[in-house]
Amino acid sequence: MSEAETIGVDLGGTKMLVGVVDAERRVSFESREQSAGQTEKELLTGLERELSEAIATRPEVAAVGLGLPCTIDQRRGVAINAVNLPIRDLPIRDLIGERIGLPVFLDNDASAAALAEHLYGAARGAQNAVMVTVGTGIGGGLILGGRVFRGTNGGGSELGHTVVEFDGHPCQGSCPNRGCLEAVASGTAIAREGRIAAEREPDSVLGTALAEGRAIDGVLVTEAAKSGDEAAVAVFNLIGRKLGAGLTSFANIFEPEVIVVGGGVAAGAGELLIGPAREEVVSKALPPMNRVSVVGAELGGESGMIGAAAMARRELAEQNGEGP
Amino acid sequence: MSEAETIGVDLGGTKMLVGVVDAERRVSFESREQSAGQTEKELLTGLERELSEAIATRPEVAAVGLGLPCTIDQRRGVAINAVNLPIRDLPIRDLIGERIGLPVFLDNDASAAALAEHLYGAARGAQNAVMVTVGTGIGGGLILGGRVFRGTNGGGSELGHTVVEFDGHPCQGSCPNRGCLEAVASGTAIAREGRIAAEREPDSVLGTALAEGRAIDGVLVTEAAKSGDEAAVAVFNLIGRKLGAGLTSFANIFEPEVIVVGGGVAAGAGELLIGPAREEVVSKALPPMNRVSVVGAELGGESGMIGAAAMARRELAEQNGEGP
Questions:
Q1: pLDDT digits (tens, 9 = 90+) for A2-12
Q2: Whole-model pTM?
Q3: What does each C-alpha distance from B48 to B60, B64, B108 come to in angstroms?
Q4: Which of A148, A185, B124, B271 is deepest in the core (most CB within 10 A)?
Q5: Side-chain-side CA neighbours of residue A93 (13 Å)
Q6: Cβ contact (<8 Å) for A163 and B81?
Q7: What does each C-alpha distance from B59 to A33, B25, B30, B55, B306 come to in angstroms?
Q8: Residue B44 at interface with chain A, using a CB cutoff of 8 Å
């Protein structure tokens, strides 16, 4: 496979991370921008600006990999539907490719993260691995038979939109469903449950923060839980068990060697979230699937960006006839 | 691939179906036995008796394929854990192989049914297809990238043990979980909801049947719904929607070309069950997955048996170096 550097982009619901990465996963350039609250046009303009800066810094880069929090049509290069960004049926591969003059390849952001963890991180060597990324939403990536599985046209592996509470809380953004894993176990759900706990228990750290007028978000609930606040720990126990119900389903469906939990919220909360999820899998999955490893991601917040760069390197090699 | 006949066995939670099938899926021998309520030893004795009868009738058969409602270790030939039969860590491949003197191959029963529908039925030509079999329990089979996907050691694709109601109704048999698809949308769940409806609405067909002392089972609820009883139709609408919540998850996870609903209960109820499930997928899955076909199985009650025979023919060919 080519030794050239490629650009990886992790375009999340909150921030955009752009990096230039080589085949040994050395990062020679990195930039970070906000993405929340922007229009489609602003997102494209911001993306083009960051890519131009990366190319100006590393003019030898060979291709761009875009990791998008979307269902994707890989063959046509179209971002079909993003739950947490204003992106619909956008031919982003050709749009960006024409603007910057480099080959562009698309992938789901969590599929890219799964590839990175498979190549360099917690899923190294696994034939079958499941990755969930817990952030504003919940993304999913699948390694099946040693390769990234994306569904028929690249729209699949939307593990965050697995129903765990029938007729439960409405899901986010453009998802028309209720009770999805993303609706009940994402950073958004942690904030929601944190606010409920703060109102119910005014003497807790969460309750005090609420009385002081602070915004009860995922970061604050995490800090409170780490300081030992029982109300906040109870929020993580509940959310972790719900996440674990989804992971139990994935264990029963895929019989994977490892389940990797990544994303910003999981990186911040660590075992506060992953511990109860693991307990749920161990006690509720069918044998032998109840023995699967449930671990945190090793590449932290960079896995989506590193994976998108690696995906672009692979796709470029396949296009050039160098095989997968 | 070999033209020889092979024996296919579909060992379900209620009945055991044994058939001799050729490569054109012509069935030259068939027998049916009860399996419910038997011990492991009685199951093995009954299986050996049926296989001996099949071999006596068609002495040229080349191999046996066992479709079991179990998690499986295919490499070691072990049936690990059946939810609805008393089977635990049973080295059934070698046990049966020694008794009958033919090569024996194992598969999950629903994986076998998925293979049959992929070769000969509703999933013909699909690269990615999901099959659920709705009977006493709910089984699952996956065609991914044109091949049967079974997880790392053959224990996966337990789609019936996907959680759709967190902390919901306890699951069946040996499953330690709650709110699995099998707990809320199987034949057992239809009977349970039918009894609740009969008590709530004494003037309905279901209520009258209950007053007459008849057992409210899946067959009776199906008959009542087909006769137009609103209470029974409402049961199927609820159960169909819950089944549909699971199918929506599978659509979002796999982006399959088709979802096939088989098994005895689905064969009996048809669109009564599949209709509301399809509506749920169309209205709740993410685009483009909401456009997936949701159809009934084409091979009816024989798909597990035909698929087990086809699986044995394939495995034998691979063993003989004829490739997959």
A1: 578 999 999 98
A2: 0.94
A3: 17, 11, 19
A4: A185
A5: 18
A6: no
A7: 72, 18, 14, 5, 18
A8: no
